[in-house]
Specification:
Blueprint: E1 6-12, H1 18-29, E2 34-36, E3 45-52, E4 66-74, E5 76-78, E6 87-90, H2 98-104, E7 110-114, E8 123-124, E9 127-128, H3 129-134, E10 144-157, E11 162-169, H4 175-185, E12 190-200, E13 203-204, H5 211-216, E14 237-239, H6 243-250, E15 255-256, E16 273-277, E17 283-289, E18 295-301
Parallel strand pairs: 3-12, 14-16
Antiparallel strand pairs: 1-3, 2-3, 4-11, 4-12, 5-6, 7-10, 8-9, 10-11, 12-13, 15-18, 16-17, 17-18
Length: about 300
C-alpha cells in the first residue's frame, strides 16, 4: 500500500489522546512521519487533522482558528473544570431567561483573559501543570489573552442548568475555563459537560473519517487524503516560471520578484508566508519576502521528486 503525503481529517473518538491517533495511523499506514495539528483532550471528540509525510513540515502554516460545540453544566465545580473531575463545590443557579443568559455571554466574546485549568499542558517552570497538580503541588497559573471570534448560545435547559454553545476561538483557548468562569459570572459554579470540535486548522468535520472506518477501507486510503497544497489555500502563491527559478529555489537561493506580479487584493509583509509552486501547480515549499519586498527567501524547500 502506497500512501502519498497530505492530510487526513480524523473524527476522534472519546477516550483516546491525539498522540494515540498518531500512533494508530502510523501503524495502519506503515508510515513513520505522522503528526497532528491542534491537540484534543481525551474526553473531547471531533476534528483532528493528521499530517502524513512531508505534510508534517507544513503544520505551522495551517490556519489557526478552531470551532467547537459544547455543553456547560451549571452548579458544579470540579478540580479539572470538566464533569470528569472530582467535585469540589456545588451551588444552585439562577432562574434566568435565554435572552439574559446570552447577554452574560458577552463577557466572553472578543479578546478576553482566562486562567487555564490546573489540569492542562501549560508549562510551569519547565513542567506541565497537570503533572504538578497530580503531585498535589501548590501553584498558580497566570491569565492568558485569547480571542473568542464567535460565541453563540444554542440551547438553554433551565431545569438541569445546561447551556449548549458554539464557539470559534484562537489557539490556546480553554473551553473548560470558560465553563468554570461562566458559572462564577452567574454567582454559581460551572464545568464543561461535553465538547466536540467541528473544525480545526482549516479542516472540517464534514470531511472527517473515523480510524475504525479507515481500517476497514485501508486499500483506498488515498481517497481520504487532502493534498498539502489544498490545506494552504489561505496563503498567497508565487509561481516559479522557469527551470532557472526552480533551480534557485531548490538550492536555497532567493528569488527576485516584482510585487506587481501579485493580486492587488493581497497585502504583503516580510513576516507572512507564501506558498511556492511551479507551472504544474506542484508545491515546492514556503517562502518569505525580504524587508524590501524585492526577493522571496526560501524557508521550507521540498526535495525534488
Amino acid at each position: 500500500m502506497q500512501t502519498k503525503d497530505g492530510f487526513l481529517v480524523i473524527n476522534k473518538d472519546k477516550g483516546c489522546t491525539s498522540h494515540d491517533c498518531v500512533k494508530q495511523i502510523r501503524k495502519l499506514l506503515h508510515i513513520k512521519k505522522v503528526g497532528h495539528a491542534g491537540t484534543l483532550d481525551p474526553e473531547v471528540t471531533g476534528t483532528l487533522p493528521i499530517a502524513l509525510g512531508s505534510a508534517t513540515r507544513f503544520i505551522q502554516y495551517l490556519p489557526q482558528g478552531k470551532t467547537y460545540i459544547g455543553q456547560i453544566k451549571l452548579g458544579i465545580r470540579t478540580n479539572t473544570d470538566d464533569i470528569h473531575g472530582e467535585i469540589i463545590n456545588q451551588k444552585g443557579w439562577p432562574e434566568i431567561s435565554y435572552a439574559k443568559l446570552d447577554q452574560y455571554l458577552n463577557k466572553f466574546r472578543g479578546t478576553i483573559k482566562q486562567v487555564p485549568p490546573k489540569i492542562s499542558s501549560v508549562h510551569i517552570n519547565g513542567e506541565r501543570a497537570y503533572k504538578k497538580a497530580l503531585k498535589n503541588e501548590s501553584f498558580e497559573l497566570v491569565p492568558r489573552e485569547v480571542n473568542i471570534d464567535e460565541l453563540t448560545l444554542i440551547k438553554w435547559d433551565q431545569k438541569n442548568g445546561i447551556l449548549e454553545i458554539k464557539i470559534k476561538c484562537s489557539p490556546g483557548t480553554y473551553i473548560r475555563s470558560i465553563a468554570r468562569d461562566f458559572g462564577k459570572v452567574l454567582n454559581s459554579e460551572g464545568c464543561l459537560l461535553l465538547l466536540k470540535r467541528i473544525s480545526a486548522c482549516g479542516f472540517h468535520e464534514k470531511n472527517s473519517i473515523r480510524i475504525s472506518d479507515l481500517e476497514k477501507d485501508r486499500n483506498n486510503t488515498k481517497n481520504f487524503i487532502i493534498p498539502t497544497i489544498s490545506a494552504l489555500d489561505h496563503i498567497p502563491t508565487l509561481v516559479l516560471k522557469n527551470n532557472e527559478e526552480i533551480n534557485f529555489w531548490q538550492t536555497g537561493r532567493a528569488i527576485k520578484v516584482d510585487i506587481n506580479y501579485f493580486d492587488k487584493r493581497n497585502t504583503f509583509d516580510y513576516e507572512k508566508p507564501l506558498k511556492v509552486i511551479d507551472n504544474e501547480k506542484t508545491l515546492l515549499g514556503i517562502g518569505f519576502f525580504n524587508k524590501e519586498l524585492t526577493n522571496i527567501n526560501p524557508k521550507l524547500v521540498l526535495n525534488a521528486k
